Every structure is written in C-alpha cells, then in structure tokens.
## 1
Amino acid sequence: MSAAVLELQRITKRYPGVVALDGVDFTVYENEILGLVGENGAGKSTLMKILIGLIQPDQGTYRLRGAPVVIKNPAHAANLGVGMVFQEGCLVPNLSIMENLFLCHEIGFRHFGFLSKRKMRDAAHAALGTVKVAADLDTPVSETTPAVRQMIEIARLLWLSKLYQQRNPVLILDEPTTVLTDDERNTLFSIATELKSQASIILISHRLQEIVETSDRILIMKDGKRVANIQARHAGIPEIEQMMVGHAFAADRFREDEQIPPGDQVTLTLENVSKRGVFEPLNFEVRQGEIISLVGLVGSGKEALCRCIAGLEKPDTGSIKLAGKRLTPGSPSEAVRAGIGHIPIDRRSDGLALGMTIAENVNLLVLDHLKVGGFISPQREKKNALRWIQDCRIKAPSPSTMCVNLSGGNQQKTVIAKWLSSKIHLLVLDHPTRGVDVGAKDEIYRLIRQLARTGVGMIIMCDTLEEDIGLCGRMLIMKDGQLVNEVNCPPYRKPSPSDIISSIV
Amino acid sequence: MTAPDSGSATITQEKATVGHKRLQIPAIYFALTLLVVLVILFTLGNQNFLSAYNLNTIGNYAAILSVVALGQMNTILIGGIDLSVGGLMSFTSVLFVVLLQLIGVWAFPICILVALAVGYVNGAILTRIKIPSFIATLGTGGILTSLALLVSPLPVVAPGSKYGLLDLVNGNLLGIPNLLLLALAAFVLFYVTLRFTKIGRNIYYVGSNIKMSWMSGIDIVGTRNFAFVLSGFGAGLAAIMLSCNQFGGDPTLGNVYILQSIAAVVVGGTALTGGTGGAVNTIIGALILAVMENGMNVVGVDAYFQQSILGLVIIISVALTFDRTKTAMIK
Amino acid sequence: MPNTVTSMLPHRSTSWLSTSATKGRKWFQRSGISGQLLALIIVMGIFTIGTRGKYLSLVNLQVILSLAAIPAIIAIGLHQVVVLGAIDLSVEGVVAFCVVIVGFLAHNKFNANDVGLWIIPITAGVGGGAGVINGLLNTKLKIPSFISTLGMSWVLWGLAVFVSKGQTIPLLNNPLRAVVNGYVLGIPNLAIIAFLIFAIIQLVQDRTRFGRYLYAIGGDEVLSAQAGVKVHQTKIFVFGIAGVLYGLAALFLAVKLDSAQAITGNNLLFPAVTAVAVGGVALTGGIGGAKNAALGALIVTALNDGLILLDVNPYAQQAVNGAVLVVAVALTIDRKKLGFIK
C-alpha cells in the first residue's frame, strides 16, 4: 500500500453563480498513474489549478507528503515537486530548449559569476535523457514540435524535483495526446510508465481508451463533485461514460415545452466546408427557427467551424450560404450584414465594450436605423435601448449604466439584446450560459425560445451535454474533425446523455 | 467573472477581470475642478491674471491648441496616438504662406486637403502596413519636419498684399474674434461627428474593444483611417490659424504642439487606452493647459521649468485615467 | 499561447506588403547579424562608388567610427528596454540633465566645483537613477513605458534647462579630454570604449541569469512570471542600465564639446531608435542583442556620413532617416505578437 504523496480534502471553490468544486476529496499515491475524467465544466481544470497554486480554494486542506501546505504560485509548486504540463504549453517561445529547462534555476551552474555553458549542457542532456529526447539544445522552443515541448516541460519538472530533493514529484498531464501523432503518443505513455518508479502522474484525457490502458486508478468528476474512484483494471468504458454524465435528465429545465419544429425554409447551408488540420469537409443545413447543437470534445473542430460560420475565420474549401446567397469567407462584416450573429464565449473581452453604456452596446448594430436627418437621434437611441432592456429583462438602473458594472448574466443579456435588435437570421451561440447564475440562465433560455419563434436559426454550443440536448432540436456530433453522428432531440422524447456520450469520446 | 473551467494557463486573466468597478464620477468633473482651482490660484498670485488683455491672450492660445488637440483626440480615442501633428503643423504653416503668395485665397482649402491627405497616409501605414501608430507617426512627423525645413529653412513672412485674406482668421464677427469662432466651429464639428454620426461612434467602439468591434462587423480599417484624417485636419486647421495670427509661417512652430496636444487630451480626461472621453473633455483640457502656460508666466515661473511641470502633469493624468483592466500587462 | 486578448485572432495578412514583410522579417532576424553586416557592406559600397573612393579613406573611416560611438552606447542602453517589450523615450531628457550635471560639477568656468574623475560614477549614477525611476513608473505605477519615459524626458529636459538657465557652461581642463579625443592605433578611443561596453553587455546577455530573464520577459512576460522570473526587478534593472549608459554618453559628449548645455541632448533619440531597429532588435521584444544595437548604430552613422559626403540636403537626410526607421520596424516586428496593432 503506497503512501499518499498529495491529499486534498473537502476542497470547495465558488465563483459568482456557480460552484466549481463542491467538497472534493482528492488523493494521489506514490508511484501511480491516476486518470482524471469528466465533462467540460466538471471541475477538473479548477482542481488542477488549485494543485499547482494558480488559484486558492475557498475551503479545504492541502497536504503534500503529509504536511499541510499553501501553494503560492506555480513556481512555488514546481519547487515542491508538483507541476502541470498545460495544453497550450508553458515554455517561453524565443528561448532555447536548454534555457527553458533551467529558467530561474540557473544558480547552480555559476562559474565565477557567469553561467557555465558546459555544465548546463551536460545537465540538459541528462534531463532530456530521462524523457528520451534527443535535440539540439540551442533550438528556440518555438521551432520544436508540440511533442518535444511536452517532454521538455516534463523533463524540467523532474529536474526541479531532483534539485529541490522532492521525493516522488506529481506530474499533471492535461490532454497531452490531442497534439500528438500515434507514435508520439505511444512514446509518451511508455515514458510515463517508466517514470512511475520515481513519480506520480495525473493524466487528464477525454480519450477513455487511453485512460483505461495507461492508468492504475481512475477518478471521475461531474458537476464539481467526485463521483467515482475506481481501479483501472476493473473499469469498463461504458460504465465510465455513464458516471461522467449521469442518468437523470431534468426535463423542462430548458423550457422544452416551448420548443417548436423548424420552419421549411433553409436559412444556412454549408457545402463541403473544411479547414485543413482542423475539420474535414462538412455538409449540413439549418432551417428557420431550428436550434442545432454542435457537440464534441476538445479537438473536434466545432469551435473552428462556428468561427468560420461567423466569418471570423476562413475555411479552406466549400461555401457557406445564408438564404441561398454565398457569403464571402473570413469577413465578419459581411456575415453581420447578411444577418449572422455571434455570441462569443468570452463576453468580457469579445462581446461588449465594457467602458460604454448599455444603450451604446445594444444599439451598436442598428445605428443606421436610429438616425434622424442623417444624424443619430438620442431619443431614438434611448427608446430602442429601453425596449430591449425590457424585452430581455436586463436589470440595470438605466440605459446609461456602464456595462462593466453589470452582473455576468446581465452582461450576457446585453450581448444578446445587441443581436436581437438587429434582425438576424442566424445566431451562433458559444456557451451562452457560462458563468451565469441560475435565474439568468432561465431567462436566456426564454430568449432563445423567443428567437426561434421569430424564425431565427441557431447553432449552439453549451457547457453541458444536458443543456445541449435540452435546447436543441437536432444535435450534430463532431469528433476529431469529422461529423460522426446526427441525433434528433424532439421535445418530450429527448435522448439521454449516456446515449450520446459514446459517440463523442 | 471568467468561466471557472476555461482551461487557460495564465494568472493575470483571473486577476485582471475580478470585479473592477469603474470610477463612478466621470473624469470631466475632475478636469473642471482642476481648471477652476488653477484660475483661482493664479489670480491670487497675480491679480492681472483676470485682466481683459490676459484673458485675450489665454483665449488665443487656447483656441489654437483646442483645434489641434481636438484632432489628436480622435487618434487617442481609437487607442493610438499621433506624434506627427508637430511636423504637420510646421509643414502646413510654411506651405500656407508660400501658397498665399502664389494662389491667394486658394491656399486655405489646398492646405486643408494636404493635411487630410497626410492624416490618411498615417492611417494607411497603421492599417495596411500594420506599423504601430506611435512609431509610424514618429517617422512621418520627422519626414514632415524636414519637408517643412526644405520648403523654407527660416520663418517666412506672409506677403503684405494678402493681409486681407488673413482677416478670415484675424478679423471679428459681431465683436467676437474669428479665431475663437473657428475654434468653436471646430469643436462643434468634432462634437457632432463623435456623438451623432455612426463613424464617430465607431471610433469609440473600436477604441473601447477592437476585437468586439471587429466581430460585430464594424469597418476597423475605415474607422481608423478616419480618426487619423480627423487628426490631420485638426493639425492643418490649427496651423493655418496660427500662421494667420502671426502673419507668417515657421518651420519649427509645430514641435511644441506634440506634447501640448497630447497633454490637453489626456488632462481633460480622455484615457490613452481609448474608448472614453470626448470633445468637451478636450476643450477643458486645452483651457487647463492654456491657463497653466499663461498663469505660470504671469506668476513668474521659469519658462523652462514649465516643461517639467507639464511632463509631470501628463504622467499623473495618465496614471489616473489609464484603464488597467484593458491590458493584462503594461508594456 | 495563453495570452489574454491578442491570441485568438486569425492572422490575416490582407495586403501583399505585409505578407512579404513577414517573410522579410524572418530572414532579417534568423540571420543574426549577417543581414546587418550585408547591409553595412552594401551601404558602404554604394557610397564608395558615389564618392569615388573618398568614403573609404582612413580619415573618413575614423570619422565614422568616432561619430558612431556615442549613438552606439545609447543604442546599447536603449535596446535592452526594447527586448523587454517596452520602449525608452527618455534618452534626450536624461542626457540633457546629465550633461548639465557635468557642467556644474566638473571643473568649469561658472563655479568652483571640481570633482575630477568622480564625475564618471556621478554621471552614471544620476543617469541610472533616472532609469530606475522609469522602471518604477512602469512596474509599480503601471504606466505604459512610452508615456512614462516620454514624460520623464520632458521633465528632465525642463529641469536641465532650468538649472542651467539655458546657458552654455564651458568646461576647463577636463581630465578625460585626452581619453575622449584620442586615438589608439588609428582607432578613436570613443569607439574602443563603445566596443568595450558592447562586449560587456553582450557577455552579460549571453552568460548570466539576468540575460536569460531579459529574453524570457521579452518572449512571454506572463509565462516568465509563472516560471518564477522576477519580472519587476529585472525591468527596473534594465531601465537602470539604460540610464547609466545614457549618463556615460552624456559625459563623453560634454567632454568632447568641452562645454555643457542642455540642448546637447537634442536629436539623440531618433538615431538611437533607428539604430536599434535597423540592427534587428524587434520592437515586439525578445529578439536582438548588444551586437545588433551596436551594428545598427554603425550602419546608421555610415549612412548619414555618406549622405553628408555626397552633399545631400541636410533636411532631406532627416527624411531618409525617417523612411529607414519605418522600413526597419516594418521588417522586424512580430505581427502575430501584436494582434491588433494600435
């Protein structure tokens, strides 16, 4: 029975309107590979960020090798032998492999005040040797492949643990295989298995096959809670999927009774649209008043697809037509003019001008219609703003309130109001209820149903599978850049999340 | 709040977006208060401060500074800056006097057109060649200064025969000096453009959140070009006003106005980050600067020390108005 | 890259100019200094032909070296700030102020002060102090460097003129005179001093931890901080070194002119920024070293010397310099890093 190297108890983390982690217990033992699975929003990222000190929990204890610790920041965590290899990579791009390996810890290589390149080189070769990488140490990291970068980060963490004499370091690998080829993946897992003798590894992946094959133990998270802790050799993939999404499906949370069948007219047509390296040629249609849900995990290509539809990115092939008319690719202004709206995932940085008023944000797209004699009329502006504030139930003292002072839910409603007021035909909604409290969520669902009634087609990507199923009339499932399945979601006869999950992972 | 599970690796995204409440009192009230306080201070220092003659001097200076500052304001609103106003003013002033001699009253519109063209070029360097505005305008400003010196290495006096034309600026209308009326007209023009036209409003959107503006289909290139054209207009008009007022052109007269125009805009409460502030702020800022400049002279502060004080005032104003949530890292 | 606002934008090069500029940039940078050396040879070649060989005379080469020394020292100070990703526009103000300090404290005609050789550490210290203030304004008060250093320049310039009352202070019997004006084996001493400064700074950049941190911050400030780099300390130090070098440049200038006046600082910023850009130091940061800055200064001086020899109108020279600056920046900045350019 191995000792526990890392123990988290009753960890809770709250954000306004949402509980990210709810009394989670999390233990990592020495010399094990722990697989961590869960949907987006289950709390995996938050938990890991707490592990490495990026954020602090609101409640709970953190014990490392038996002693309680407070981890101040990722650098501190690394010195204590806890480190994470992020999806995006944490290496400084213009520095060389060797420089990145030892960044901030070069003091041991000093030779009369100057860094001894020879000592550094020897140490670098040794460090890279543990992860089986042979590369020119002076190559800038920006010129290396993602596979090599991951290995460098792992090598660095291992080297730091040795430097600070931290026994059994804990390495967290966050979706490491999404950017790797099959060969690179096999190398990674064989190295991970080798490293087990001196470290513990937490493997986060949505590819359940990998998790079952490589891990010793598997932890499943859902809705901020830990729902299961099982030995890998006893695990079957269908069981894991069930536990990830749960059985219960709360009907009418998503105003199912307001769901209407789509109109006859086709609003959006995608013909042969593809983007090299991201998604294969796709064809589908969206009808008037139809809500389509795009479902898929990281790497499925759905985000890029939505960006292409909204004109934010250019697809490599194919055509996108709105009401039969072909749209110029890669031009948001064209898309907007044609009547395509886009609610971005990050409303603070992409959705609103925070330093401007509600009225100014709501009226952004319709200024031409608010003119009198060629000039914008303040009265018409106010009238339009008030109308949509009322319609969308935005809670604010006045239309001249600055958006930065609104709550997350009201900010989101302002973004929606902006598009609503401009007579769109198609709306792309990217995680519309993320970070929004329960009450505002319901109001946003109401707005979505209202939009459908007026004939607006919608493409939606939600935080949870349940939300996707609940809102949409038809679900398109993407995996690794391909459209793998299409599922109807009629009201009162909705599929359950467990039916769908196997197509996704 | 940022999404709890965004998977992002950065620390600052969390910090920068945690409940930042904007200062509820608009910057304009601070600017007005400062103006009043300064006037009181200087009057206490020297009672002649409020004399008709002195107020006239302040008014003349403020009028010209307002016009160039109002132009500069547009580039700052959009999140950039125009460091070429000095060179443009110098060049326009000598060009104006030379053209007066050659083509008489047509010098007025031609010079304005040239100024507009220069503004457009500044905008184009930013939007097409994608060079940051502060380097691009530093470069074009240098080129314009040397062009000015090429046209006329020394100050050039306006031809006496054309003095009548200069009355367009130097004359009076119903007792009010044309100089002030022109400044007022410029103010109205800029105010109306920013507040009541779509492209003016777009300057605010682009300055406030350029990414959102792009995603919402706003013509970023056109809006930015427009902002720089407006800046060129301000510099050109101010140069003409100044040349008429001084009965001559000077290839170095513009240098001072780079600092002063930026100071007027920033002190008035328009943030360097863009998206807030406006014409009224800038007029108040110009008045503050004119009052400071004049007041320090009247009270006896050393001429060269004034530059230091101005520098300090700018640093403090920027520190107070810069929107730090906008840039995760300050470079 | 997890950079907050700028990372997600698709990189669109809509005009052929910017696409080819990106290709040109990669070549410009990847080649270290070989691109710059080539440019230098071409420039010198053109002028040698244009002046029928006069350009390559020993006298002219000495002139070029001696003229390039001080801009090189300033550029070496300035470029490190640029590598960080910031900018230092305070050159003229710092130099003006330090020159005036020299005027007041070295043996001069207006007062009885004579600090002898102490003037060297004093000037360096004053310049360094100004630099540290720049660093503090940028890191602690979070004022963007281009405004804070610009403001500092104006503040210091004003102080300089105020303190000196706008007058020229003649220096007397300065002990450094022989050093500043002398030659060793035909090479101007100032050029040798500039070379030594370049060598020291380049060594520091290559072989010390500070050098690593400098480039890390320039490459990705957020990730560097996450890795444990002390960003604020490093930035303040970099601004400080720049100030020290400006101070030394001011000292040499004053001694060379044998007098101290505030306007000595004028027209130093533009050539320095041009030198840094031409040398291949990207405004976006993370790229370029002391060798780039020094070589850039040499190229700019060689260019201007040639223009003078060819009798080109002095005002047109400034226009040429302006154009060179704009082109050099266009070729070296990393547009992906800037996202939407302001």
## 2
Amino acid sequence: MTRSWLCFVLLLLLAAACDKENDDLVKPLSADEFPQVIVLDDEGDGGLEDEDAFSFKLTLLDRADATGAAPAGKITPLKEAVTVNFKVTGFKGFNKLSDYIKDAKAFYEIDDCTTSEDAGIKIPLQFDVNTGLGSVQFPAGVEEVEVEFEVDDALFDDDVFNTKKRELTIQLTGTAGNNVAVQANKTADFTYSVQDDEAIYGEWELDSKDAAAFTRFKTLFGLVSEDIKGLTAADVKKITFEVEYGEIKVVVKLKATEVVNECGSAETKNKEIEIETEIEELADDELEGDIEFGEVLELGKGKFAEFVYKGSFKITGKQLTLELKGELEDEETDDIMLTLEK
Amino acid sequence: MMTKWIASCLLFLFPWCAWAQQAIVKGTITDAVNKEVLTGATISLLGSNNSTVTDVNGEFFIYAGSGTRSLVVRYLGYSDSTITLELKPNETRVLRIGLSSSYARLSSVIVMGLLQGQAKALNQQKNADNIRNVIASDQIGRFPDPNAAEALQRVPGVNIERDQGEGRYVFVRGLAPQFTNVSVNGEQIPSPEADVRFVALDAIPADQLASIEVSKSLTPDMDGDAVGGSVNLITRTAQSKKPRINASLAGGYNQLMRATNIQGQLQYAQRLGNKEKLGVLFNSSYYHNDLGSDNIERSPQDNEVELRDYSLTRTRLGLSSTIDYRFNPRHEVYLRALYSRFTDREWRRRYVFKPEDEEIEKLTKDRFEAQSITTINLGAKHNFNSFFLNYEAQFSNGRQNTPYDNEIGFIAGIPSVLGFKNPKYPSITADDFTDNKAYELDEAGFGHTLAKDRNITAKFDLGIPYKLNNNSGLIKVGAKLRRKEKSYSITQDYYEAIADVPTLDAFEEGPIKSSFLGGRYELGKPLSVGSFINYFNANPAAFASSPEDKAIDEALEAYDAEEHVVAAYAMARQQFNKLMVLGGVRYERTKVSYHSKDVVIDGAGDLQEIVPVTGSSSYDFLLPQASVRYQLSKFTNLRAAATFSYARPNFSEIIPSQEINQEDNIATAGNAALKPVKAFNLDLLGEHYFGNVGVLSGGFFYKRLNDFIYRRVLFNSPYPLAGTPYLNSIDVVQAQNGNQANVTGFEFAFQNNLSFLPGALKYFSLYVNYTYAHSAATLQSRTADAAKPNTTEKLRLPGQATHVGNISLAFERKKFNARVSFNFNGEYLSEVGATSEEDVFVKDRLQADISAGYAFNAHWRLFAEVLNITNQPFERYMATKDQLIQREYYRQWGRFGVKFDW
C-alpha cells in the first residue's frame, strides 16, 4: 500500500514538473491597473483674427463603467487633484509668444450655466508668457478643465488676405510628482489657428428676399431638412452660412419667436433652423477652390443616413459664390449656385 | 417515482421471471499464458439460451439454476472451453478461467500483445447487443495516435476534424460533432468549450484509456441524445494481485519547427489483500509538443490574402485512477477518476494584404488556452439472487481557461497586387512590405475568457433475469438525474494609440522559422508581443482604451445556463435460440434556463444599450428502441436496429442574447424556443468473424432528421420578434427548426491476418474500412428574399463526407512489427455561405503514417513512428475546387521511445 501511494505522489510530481507553459510571458496592465489618462480634449481649434481669447480643454479618457449604467464607458473623475504641466510651442506668424498671449486662467463647468469662476473657485494655474511653460491643476471630481488665454486681438487683425499660417501648438509635458495612477498624454498636441476673415471663414448671408436665391437654397438644403423644405420667404428673417474651424453651419433665423429660458432668465428669441456639418475638404488658404461638407442625419425609428454637399467656392471681395450638389442616400440635387455676402 | 412505477408493472406482468433458488456464477476470463484479461468473451449455460459477455475487465456474472450445470466459454482466437459445475441453491460460485489460444500465431507473437488487442476488440464487437465498434488499449498503441480523437479515426464511419494537424472533433457517420455524445465510463462529460456541447477529444490522452466504444445504434439504457453515435471512453482498472507497472518514454521531432517533443507515461495497478478485495490503479501521462504550421488564406469576396505563420506549444497531461473494493463476489464499490489537462499556447503571426484599401496589416497573437476535464464516478454493483442493481453518482467538470489572448495589430499604407494564376500559391507584389518601419500601431487587444461546464449525475440500473420457456431474458429498468451548469465569461480590452507609438521595427525579434511555405514567401522579422507589452506597460498614457468595444464583446458572448435532465427507461432482452431481441423505451425530459444580454447598436454604429435577458425552455422525448441479432453461425451475425434519438441544440443557438445592428440593418438573435433535432435511425449489419482474429462486415444505415436546425434569415422582420416591436423592418438571423434532412450510407470493414499467403507474406495483416454516406438537408434558399422568403434548397449536411476510410498494412513476426496506415477523409461542406458561391468545403485529405516496434522480451520494447509522411496539407475551397481559400502545411513529426510492462 505504501508503494502505491509513493508511486502516486511520484506521478503527481512528474506532472507538476512538466507543467510549464507560460515562458516569456509579459502580462499587460489590466483595465483596473491602467492609469487615469489626462488628454487634450481636441486636436485643434481656430478663431477669427480679431478674437481676444482662445482656450483648450483638458479631459480624462473614458473608462469602462463597472456599474453598467454607461455601457459605452464614461469619464471617471479623479479622486485627488493633479497638477498637469503644459507648454505652448511651435508658433508661426509671429516672433514672440508674449506679443500675442497676454494672460491665462482656468475654470471648469459646474453646470450648463455656472463655471467654477462664477462660483468663486480659483483653479491654480501658472503660465510664463516668455517661456510658454505652464501648469494647471486638474481638480478632483470634475470631467474637464478649460484653460483660456487672453490674446492681443489687434496683432493679426488686418484687411489683407493672408496665405501664411498663424498658429501655435500646446502639448502636455506630464504630471507633477510622477503620479503613476494619473498620467498625462505627452505626445498629442492641440493647434490653435488664427483664421483670416478675408478668406472663407466667418459668417456669410444669403439674401432671402431674392426669390430665385431663396428657391435655390430651399432646393439645396431642403434635401436634408423638412423644415427648410416647407419654408416660405415670408417666414424667414435671415439666412447665414457660417464657416468655422472644421465645421460649417447653415442657420435660418425665422421671424417667429419663442421664449427661451436659459440659466434662469427668460428671453424672447427668433426661432432658428440649423444644419451643422463637418468640413471634409476645404482649401482655406485660397480664394477659390473645392469644398465638401456633410454629416450623419437621424431619420427616426433608429435609422440614420449620411449626407454630403460637394462643389466649389469663390470669394470676390465680400461676396462668396458657392456651387454645390447635395446627396442623401439615393437622392441628390442638381448643381446649385448660391451667392452670399459678408 | 416513474421508475418505481415501471419496475412494479414489469414485476407484475412477469411474475414467473424471478428465479427462486438460483445460483450465481461470477468470474474472470484470462489468457492462460500471459494472464491478460479477455474482454468480450461469451459465457453460455449449456442447454439453455442463457449467456453473458465479459466486460472490459474480463469479468462476468450469470444466473444459473442449481444442480449440475455446464458453462461454455468462447473467445475469438481461442479454443472453446467447457466447465461443469455442481451448483447449490443461492450459491455464488467464483471462477478464474484461463483460455488457451487455438491460433499458433497468436501464441507466437504474444510478446507484442497486438493481436490480443485486436481479439479483445472483435470479441466485444461480436457479442455486443447493439451495433458497436471497439478499440482496445492494445489496439490504440498499434497506431501512432496520441489522443482519443486520433484513435477514433481508425473506426469505420468515423472521420475527424483536425486543428494544427492534430485530431480534435469526431464526426460519426457524416454527422457533425453535436450529433455524437461523448462519455467517460458510461456517463456524459461536459464540454470545456463555451458555446457547444461536444467535446474536443484532443484533450484526452489515448494512453489513459482501457478501451473506446463507438455505439452506432442505441439501446434504451443509453442516453438518447446521440444521433450519429455514442462514444464511450473507458478508463483502466487493476486486474491482478501481481503489481503491474507500465511505463513509456519517448522523444520526438517536428520537422517544421525543428523542435523536439517528449512523452511519458507511468501506470501502476495492483489488487491488494489476501482475497484481492481492493484494487488500485494510478495512471499518469504527459506529452509536450512543439509544433506549427505554414498557412495561406484567401478571401475572394474582399480580394484579400493572409499569410499565417503558426507556432504552438501543446501539452497533454492525463491522470486517472480506479479504486475498487469487492466486499464479496456479489457486491462491490468503485471510485473512478480521470483528470486531463490540455494546454495550447499559440503564436500566430500574419500579414493581411488588402489591395482594395491599399493597406497591409501585420498582426501577432499570443494566446494560451487550458482545457481540463475532470470526472469522478462513485458507484456500486450488487448481484442478488434474483436481480442485480447498479448505481452511480458522477461529478464531471469541463473548463476552458484562456488567461491571456493578446493580439497586436500594426498597419502600413502599402499598395499590393495579388495574382491567382496559381491558386495554390497566390502571387503577392508589394514593395518592401517586410520593412517593419512602415507599420504603425492599429490596435492592441488583451483578452481573458473562462468557460465552465459542470455535470452532477445520479443514476441506477435494475436488472431482473427471467425465463420464458427455456429462453433466458432480462428485464432492465433504470433512471437518471443530471444537473448541468454552464457559463462563459469574457474580459476583453482594446487599446489604440493616442500618441506616436514607435513603428513595428522597435518591437521586432528574430524569425521563428528558417523559411515559410518552402521559401515561397518572405515574412521578415516578426513582432515580439512581450516587447510591445513592455512598452505598453511603461507608456500607458500613449494609449486609449475602447470601453464601448469592450462592453459589446463582453456582453454579447457571456452567459449562464442551467439544464436539468430526468430520464427513465424500461427494456427487455430476450434470447430465442439464435435470435436475440432487445426492445424498450426511454423517456427523457430536459429543462433549460439562461441568463445573457442583448446588445443594441444604433444606426450610427454606436452602442445604444445593453439589456439583460433571460429565457427558458423544456422538452420531452419518448424514445422507442429495438435491436435484433441473429446468429447465422458461430462466427456470423446479422443485426438490425430501429431507434429514435435526438440532439440538443448548441448553447450558442438557444441563448437569447441578441445583437441588433441598425447600421447594417441586421440582427442576430438566439432562439430559446429552438427544439432539439429528432432522429429516426435504421441500421442493418452483417458481420463474419474469422477464427484467426479478423472480421468482414458490411452494413447499411439510414437517418431521418426532423426539426433540423439551420440559420434562417427573417427578412424585413419587426424587432424584437416577440412583444411590442420598436423596429418595423430589420433582417433577423436566427437558428430555427422546421426542415428535414436524411443521411443514407453503407459501411464496409475487413481486418484479418493474411496467414493463407505463402512465405513471409503470411506475416502480413490487412485492416481496411470504408464508409459511404449521402445526405440531403432542405434549407431556406439563399436566394430567398422578402418577396419569396419560403423558397427552399437542398444541401449536403455540413460536416458530412461522402467517402471516409482507412487502409493499414501490418507486418508482425516474433519480436518485430511494422505498420503503414492511410487515413482518408473525403471532402465535406464546412460552412454554409450567404450564397452558394460562398459555400466553404474542406478538401479530401489522405494522411500516411508509419510505425514500428521491436520487443526485446515480454517487458521491454522499442517503438518508433512517423506521422504525415507525405506532408498532406489541410485545404479548404470556396464554391469551386480551383478557388482555394486555405492551405495549411504541418510537415512531418515523429516519436521514438521505449515501453516497459512489468
């Protein structure tokens, strides 16, 4: 009997000795071990040359929601504040950073109507306009922090069509104290571009009193908006075409008004129909060229469709001429020309 | 309760059946020379039709009236032996009978033990009540088959599906693996895999088994959920007082990987005590194998080609034990345990050439998977004067743990041109595609999965012998309860670069193989997954996770399920002179419940919501079974069987989890109301055995499958299918019942020693079997659409090969034996495509293996084997044979070792 047990033990030892299968394995950080990562919220932004401020935002990467309430993941705010270092670099179109940036401040949104600044909460921020180096505290319990720079609004404001870039870049350089649990993404950057208001950027208005122009506008944008398709000229107060950083907005301001209650104060405003699109292609350093913009349209009942407008533009002084063709699934418009004024 | 009722009725209906004053003769039949037990020997009571057969341990018991009785013992290859006994009323007589071989060659080559294995198998087959093939342990050793699946490929009508060249799943009579149940020691084992019921038999080392039985027709005392067949793996038991130690040690070589492998086995068995009441057996084996494959795949629809370079390390650990205690000749208890652990670490390095996107992807996977199966059977056998009672409890656990499944994908914007003038080796033109500097990180995925399947079973069998005139019979009733719990959990994380992660050259390592596909393609330097993960761990802020993809993957696949089975049967076996009739009925009730999740993707392709869902179903089956065997002569049987059986759906088909993708306007949905496939099976078989240990058999089989399960597209369906729909029109893909399929075929087998030939040729033996099968399943036509959704078409059943066969020629003389074996798997439909142009077929494959052995004496012998000597690839094609979509080469591998029996 002793022999049989001895034999059994030997067999087990033999099996255990042979059971090696994870040689050279390097285990990746698990989702729980993966640090909170502070990132720049966007790759860039832009403002017209007479803007007196611009900002960038710091946020946290989405994480899986253990509660399951947000299955696609969500930002999990920090439990303790972390100081994030950043630098402003790579400026083009000017020689000295201090010629353009005058001051900086940081704040975060408490709700849609209130910022930390409104509530008297001061976010520690340091910024040296000479070196471009700065740091800002990312407070606990918030999802994003905005750093706003006050800039010289006269430095670039001219009446000349500029073809050279005027921009600067912001990068995160790390967190204070080499915090392992909270790290900053150090290689992504945010570029702020000064947009030339002699180019296509800015607000352009269509003469809605021009019956032919109004009909062409309705044909073109009625493709993606039943509200625009049903308009009469008498309904309309103003039609604008707003070209901004990365997006184009078509806004129809109606004569009809509504009372809008924003942040506790009621205000009577004109109703608006708005089509927001992303720019796919635009030669913004030319006075004429190709243009393409579009978006995904929600059709209801869970259906979505992508629409796109393609064509060309031409700027002559204060006049913008667009020749566009709209496409939505199997429907499309003819090439339609619109003339707008700045 | 039901079983008691059935038993009471049977006892009432057959009051004459109980034999008062009868004796029991119990014993063991062994070879007179080497004391090996003889399985499948017939023991008949002279002057009556009362007979029995020895079990896998060579043991038997038979009821006999008191007085002078003569027993006749018959065993193929041995002389008949008659023993006369004077039996007293209620006596239990214990015998140990040694038979002498009547066949000179059987004695002369006894040291090899190979013919003895063949004799065991054929005797069991010959005397079985149903249509059954048996592989004895000695036979398993004849072929170079390291796992249970590969051993089974030698059985007529069985073909196997391979993974990396090694057998994994078993197809019986052309039916897919879910139509065959797998048992260990007579009780079903759970599948370690997540979404199926069938068992990957490469997890079980062949050398842990005493024998393998493949039942092609059912009897009422067998589980009814077997349409193709039922495979029973039987572990070993101690036989004698003399300690038996068996061991083997082998080393091998894989030509493709230029790597060695190692295999060892050690078994100890002994019956202890003066009366040998306690039997103990411990068996362990271990196999470590470094293997690989060179693979090229093509996707004709996408105009893409993949080069896949696999290297793997597989281990197979087997531990088994049987402890039995015989209180006296009538009563015994036993504990049988089997633990097997199969591990598979796989490195997959692949290029994906995408000319349409002008991209080339380079992906590297490092995955470890451990499949384990544990079975513990605790039972007892009681032989009373007028009945016998066997009962058993079984715990079995299947588990598949994948602690890591890491895949790193890099991508390069390199255009490529693919040419298919030579479909076997497509031409690939792409500038500097092996330059790792061109590849940027696309995505890194880190996964972990755990699948668990646990069965707890309790059952009993009660047998009551009776006599009708002078014909003996047996009434048998029994019942079973089984509770199954199955679950699958998954953790999957995806990361993308949000900063400038270095290009692939920063993580490269030296090539694993000296050449790929014979040097036809250059692969450059592969990625070191460990090197990349080191970078990832040091620079996590350069990566962003994708919690949405994580949530979708984890919710879609995870589930918990419970299944309760209640079964009962009643059967009678009656011998009328040369005719044996066995008939009865089996009742099985199954109740299943599930918990899983729905995933809703909105029209923009984003995750909308994840909704927990539950479902349940239950079904009953009453399964009449009948088998007859007519003994034309001492060596010739005619058999027929008409049986009803069924196959439960795979868990993946019934779990009510759903994915609704509004972007693509398609939803996939589980179907908790899915019914099992019902089958009627008809079998006819004629078999003639040769006294010098051989057989010639031929048979016909027919199966009609109702409620056949297939994937149906419900065009423009409201969604959800039940309750208030919130979508009016979406295409829903769901497994559904409703169609019929038929399988018809015949099989032929011949094995015998060619002793009638002159000279040295008489030392050869031939083993041939062939199965032809034809199937037709009616399915919703792939051309069906919303206008004509009920259009049907006929297809072959997936997995059904028209031609399957084996040829093996062996030479065996004195201390030397050698064998060359060919295994042929005919082509079969592997995947049913969206259109017939997308149907995927696995091509014919003929594998040739050679093995040889030399016995120094009764204790020591050498063996050597080389597998896949012709380097046969695994090939798949789409629609037409010239449109090859996969070719995978393994090269040759072999082993050389020594076996020790003491």
